[in-house]
């Protein structure tokens, strides 16, 4: 208030006002202010103008202090998250892989990823999975990339440990041609954001359900082989076999050549050394009743993945994925045995096979392939886990089917005919 009194005094000189103003600003700032900062003419300044000038200076100073506090808190938060996330990631890598075998990947800042996606704009969102993460298209270092960003409420659906688990496994598997390559991640946010290569042809589930004619039977069989290959890789490549536990159409993407790329490792778990099964609270956040059914029946094992692959192979054959709790009945041996191939197989690939048969029914080669695939599915979906084949044998059988060098229960029949009737039940041999 002293400066107001001074300003109101008729006897106050310009120098007196300047000295009083300097003292007030020095008190506000908590440090000395150079006199040259006040090198302005205040002669003739009204009392109101002087007060407003001082008030503005004071507000700017307080704003600067608050911004500094906010920036400091954000920086400390980023550092805390980096230490926590990095520690969890290192722990997973040591636990699963003895910190070996990892493919190199980059660490990006949170600001770099915001810029790459135009602050995660809606226009750049390309895929959402059950509300707990989104895929965004971005551009980093001159190349298109795909960012996987977890939602802020993820802790309600799965844990931070599951996210760092994904980074650890994805880094190990990125060298396989049928795994979506992990390019890097940002550990500066509460939940890490992952950066993958960009899959030009989108998500397998969306492609199959929205444009089934674009995936011929030949391509679907190729995709099945590629998926079997990468799951076999998880089971056999590392000292402790990795169980994926969530083999689902939505967890695969397609590149420019329609090659399948496994893109979700959130639920992977390594078998304990010397063990064939593992207990884990896995069902948290799981929205697929078919997968949940088999995993809730007991500890997870490699045979759990075999069941998951069998259900996915059936999806490729049917051209769709059944949802809801009632969907469980479709992924059982009894459902397949009680229906004909015409009732099970996607009409688009039946029409394709009939065209090869010259309009007189499905060509015998396709018929035997369908039969062999259904028989393999029956084995994979067996209620008795011990009767399910291992993934390595599944992959080998699929390669034989793809080449036409297969043996099914009908392969020795009707070879002389050019087409076959599909109005017969699937052979009940399993």
What is the secondary structure topology, with strand pairs?
Elements: H1 2-8, H2 14-29, H3 47-97, E1 106-107, H4 110-116, E2 125-129, E3 133-140, E4 143-150, H5 160-173, E5 182-186, E6 193-197, H6 204-210, H7 217-236, E7 242-243, E8 252-254, E9 260-262, E10 269-270, E11 277-278, H8 289-296, E12 300-301, H9 302-318, H10 333-337, H11 341-344, H12 347-356, E13 362-363, H13 364-380, H14 391-403, E14 419-420
Helix pairs in contact: 1-2, 2-3, 3-5, 7-9, 7-14, 8-9, 9-13, 13-14
Q: How would you sum up this structure, described in words?
A:
The chain has 430 residues and is an alpha+beta fold. It is 46% helix and 12% strand. The protein is built from 14 helices and 14 strands. It has helices at residues 2-8, 14-29, 47-97, 110-116, 160-173, 204-210, 217-236, 289-296, 302-318, 333-337, 341-344, 347-356, 364-380, 391-403; strands at residues 106-107, 125-129, 133-140, 143-150, 182-186, 193-197, 242-243, 252-254, 260-262, 269-270, 277-278, 300-301, 362-363, 419-420. The strands form 5 sheets. Strands 1-5-6-4-3-2 form a 6-stranded mixed sheet, sandwiched between helices. It has a two-stranded antiparallel sheet with strand order 7-10. It has a two-stranded antiparallel ribbon with strand order 8-9. A hairpin with a 3-residue loop joins strand 2 and strand 3 (133-140). Helix 3 (47-97) crosses helix 5 (160-173). The longest helix has 51 residues, at 47-97. It is elongated. The model is unreliable at 29-45 and 410-421 (pLDDT under 50).
């Amino acid at each position: 208030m002293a400066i107001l009194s001074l300003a109101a005094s008729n006897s106050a000189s310009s120098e007196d006002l300047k000295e009083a103003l300097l003292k007030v600003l020095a008190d506000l700032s908590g440090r000395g202010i150079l006199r040259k900062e006040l090198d302005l003419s205040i002669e003739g300044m009204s009392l109101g103008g002087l007060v407003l000038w001082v008030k503005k200076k004071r507000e700017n100073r307080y704003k600067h202090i608050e911004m500094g506090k906010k920036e400091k808190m954000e920086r400390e938060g980023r550092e805390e998250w980096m230490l926590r996330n990095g520690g969890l990631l290192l722990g997973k890598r040591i636990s699963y892989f003895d910190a070996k075998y990892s493919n190199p990947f980059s660490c990006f800042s949170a600001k770099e990823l915001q810029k790459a996606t135009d602050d995660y704009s809606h226009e750049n969102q390309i895929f959402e999975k059950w509300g707990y993460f989104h895929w965004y298209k971005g551009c980093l270092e001159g190349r298109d990339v795909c960012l996987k960003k977890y939602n802020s409420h993820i802790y309600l659906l799965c844990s931070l440990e599951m996210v760092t688990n994904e980074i650890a496994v994805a880094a190990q598997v990125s060298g396989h041609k049928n795994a979506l390559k992990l390019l890097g991640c940002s550990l500066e946010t509460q939940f890490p954001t992952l950066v993958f290569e960009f899959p030009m042809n989108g998500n397998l589930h969306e492609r199959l359900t929205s444009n089934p004619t674009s995936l011929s039977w030949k391509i679907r069989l190729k995709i099945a082989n590629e998926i079997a290959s990468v799951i076999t890789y998880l089971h056999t490549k590392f000292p402790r076999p990795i169980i994926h536990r969530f083999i689902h159409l939505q967890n695969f993407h397609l590149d420019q050549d329609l090659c399948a790329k496994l893109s979700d490792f959130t639920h992977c778990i390594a078998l304990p050394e010397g063990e064939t099964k593992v207990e884990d609270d896995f069902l948290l956040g799981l929205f697929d009743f078919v997968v949940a059914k088999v995993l809730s029946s007991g500890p997870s094992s490699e045979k759990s993945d075999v069941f998951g692959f069998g259900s996915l192979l059936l999806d490729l054959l049917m051209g769709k994925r059944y949802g809801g709790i009632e969907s469980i009945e479709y992924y059982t041996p009894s459902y397949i045995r009680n229906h004909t191939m015409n009732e099970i197989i996607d009409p688009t690939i039946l029409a394709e096979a009939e065209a090869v048969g010259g309009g007189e029914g499905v060509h015998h080669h396709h018929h035997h392939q369908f039969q062999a695939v259904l028989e393999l599915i029956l084995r994979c979906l067996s209620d008795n886990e011990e009767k399910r084949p291992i993934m390595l044998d599944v992959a080998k059988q699929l390669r034989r089917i793809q080449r036409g060098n297969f043996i099914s229960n009908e392969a020795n029949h009707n070879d002389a005919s050019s087409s076959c009737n599909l109005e017969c039940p699937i052979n009940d041999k399993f």
